[in-house]
């Protein structure tokens, strides 16, 4: 650790940013959290969805102990309980935020981070670069200002930055023009979002658990409102949209895969599934009240018309934040290179078998700048909270220079 106590800037008050702040607090390191929205903003946005991993995997011993020290009556969900994102915020993340004594600046977005006085290309490999503080461009209520920090933990996740639904990952023709009218997130079709979708025809794009969640919600809506119709499009040529994990230990996850695959193949659900299909073009009709969609299946094109579009096609890290820093990124995943290399070398595609790859994989050429949490996986969707908690433990061994430090054990 430097002779004077370093100031830590934590970007994002999601599960990993908050856990990092708690760790800093225990080590008596001053920190400021910058959060663009509310505490747990991203989790809150998909809060109607149940987590696959049981609560026992989604909280740390350090967090539980600290919350109980402040309120001995606090009741955590059971270790086996699969709770919703909203409950995770209410029953763990908010109580955690409440006991932090550092500053949490909500509704405050970090736009850019740079090295004070140095451009990206300057001081490569020079220890003097690491001695300069970081300069943060921060936006609060449309007012911009600069702030400084000595260590930056970028825990901003990926959920705010969607990918595109067109061929090869670029936008479909017309997609950028109608972007504000497309839902790229997990719509609460049985709750807040319901009235927008009742008896509408909807295009759903994507082959992951998010698309499966969306389609399952729409199918339930269609049971009550039977002219709700879903066209579900995936790029893969599998006959069933979801690839099941053999003997999946996460029961909720497997249940969702089975239910969504059934919906795709059953003739009596209001779901029409089209595999091996690309969205090629989108044309708005009647002032964005409906959309003409050109779909390509193999060499064949057909045009359909829908009222709504939900594109659950994945998320990507916001790299603009550290554009002026010396961050070595993976050319395939956009994750920080050392961790991405370790991840690409690990054989399994099941997130449950992922392990932390150690503190050294968190380093990148920019001294004292670390990317943690789901953002550290770039476009790789196998990140689990459990891994992020381990990253927090690992990064503080680097920050303090104490190799064996583990506050989860002590
Ligand atoms: C639907 C869904 C279900 C999931 N289920 C599970 C599960 O069951 N188990 C599991 O282990 N994992 C699950 N995950 C994966 C992962 O654990 C979560 O995405 C988790 O929220 C990641 O935590 P995080 O702190 O890294 O990032 P996030 O939760 O994404 O938090 C990032 C925070 O940073 C803020 N932010 C973003 N940009 C800025 C900025 N420029 N300035 C300031 N603040 C900013 C955001 O508002 C947000 O609050 C799930 C993910 C999704 C999307």
Helices and strands in order, then pairings?
Blueprint (H helix, E strand, L loop, with lengths): L7 E4 L3 H12 L4 E4 L6 H5 L15 H10 L14 H14 L4 E3 L2 E8 L11 H5 L2 E7 L2 E7 L1 E4 L20 H4 L15 H4 L3 E5 L3 H16 L4 E5 L17 H15 L5 E4 L2 E9 L4 E8 L2 E7 L1 E4 L25 H9 L23 E3 L13 H16 L10
Parallel strand pairs: 1-2, 1-7, 2-3, 7-15, 8-9, 8-14, 9-10
Antiparallel strand pairs: 4-5, 5-6, 11-12, 12-13
Structural notes for this entry:
The chain has 410 residues and is an alpha/beta fold. It has eleven helices and 15 strands. It has helices spanning 15-26, 41-45, 61-70, 85-98, 127-131, 175-178, 194-197, 209-224, 251-265, 337-345, 385-400, and strands at residues 8-11, 31-34, 103-105, 108-115, 134-140, 143-149, 151-154, 201-205, 229-233, 271-274, 277-285, 290-297, 300-306, 308-311, 369-371. A five-stranded parallel sheet has the order 3-2-1-7-15, covered by helices on one side. It has a four-stranded parallel sheet with strand order 10-9-8-14. The radius of gyration is 22 Å and the shape is globular. The site of flavin-adenine dinucleotide (FAD) has 35 residues, from α1, α2, β4 and α11. Flavin-adenine dinucleotide (FAD) is lined by residues 11-17, 34-37, 41-43, 46, 49, 51-53, 109-110, 155-157, 159-160, 186, 210, 321, 373-374, 383-385, 388.
């Amino acid at each position: 650790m430097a002779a004077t106590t370093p100031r830590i800037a934590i970007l994002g008050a999601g599960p990993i940013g908050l856990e990092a702040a708690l760790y800093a607090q225990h080590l008596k390191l001053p920190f400021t959290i910058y959060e663009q929205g509310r505490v747990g903003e991203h989790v809150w946005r998909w809060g109607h969805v149940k987590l696959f991993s049981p609560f026992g995997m989604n909280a740390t011993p350090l967090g539980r102990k600290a919350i109980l020290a402040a309120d001995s009556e606090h009741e955590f969900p059971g270790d086996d309980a699969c709770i919703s994102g909203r409950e995770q915020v209410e029953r763990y993340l908010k109580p955690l935020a409440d006991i932090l004594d550092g500053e949490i600046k909500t509704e405050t977005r970090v736009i850019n981070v740079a090295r004070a006085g140095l451009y990206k290309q300057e001081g490569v490999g020079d220890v003097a670069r690491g001695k300069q503080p970081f300069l943060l461009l921060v936006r609060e209520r449309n007012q911009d200002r600069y702030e400084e920090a000595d260590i930056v933990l970028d825990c901003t996740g990926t959920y705010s930055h969607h990918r595109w639904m067109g061929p090869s990952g670029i936008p479909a023709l017309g997609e950028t023009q109608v972007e504000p009218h497309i839902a790229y997130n997990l719509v609460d079709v049985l709750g807040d979002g319901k009235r927008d979708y009742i008896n509408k025809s909807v295009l759903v794009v994507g082959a992951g658990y998010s698309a499966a969640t969306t389609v399952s919600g729409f199918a339930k809506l269609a049971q009550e409102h039977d002219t709700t119709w879903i066209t579900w499009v995936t790029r893969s040529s599998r006959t069933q949209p979801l690839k099941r994990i053999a003997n999946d230990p996460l029961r909720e996850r497997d249940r969702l895969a089975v239910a969504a695959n059934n919906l795709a193949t059953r003739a009596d659900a209001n779901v029409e599934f089209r595999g091996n299909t690309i969205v090629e073009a989108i044309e708005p009709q009647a002032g964005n009240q409906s959309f003409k969609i050109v779909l390509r299946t193999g060499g064949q094109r057909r045009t359909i018309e829908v009222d709504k579009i939900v594109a659950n096609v994945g998320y990507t890290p916001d790299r603009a934040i550290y554009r002026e820093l010396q961050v070595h990124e993976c050319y395939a995943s956009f994750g920080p290179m050392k961790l991405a290399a370790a991840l690409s070398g690990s054989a399994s595609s099941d997130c449950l078998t992922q392990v932390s790859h150690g503190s050294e994989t968190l380093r990148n050429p920019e001294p004292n700048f670390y990317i943690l949490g789901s953002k550290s996986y770039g476009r790789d969707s196998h990140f689990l909270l459990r891994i992020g908690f381990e990253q927090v433990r690992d990064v503080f061994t680097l920050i303090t220079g104490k190799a064996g430090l583990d506050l989860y054990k002590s």
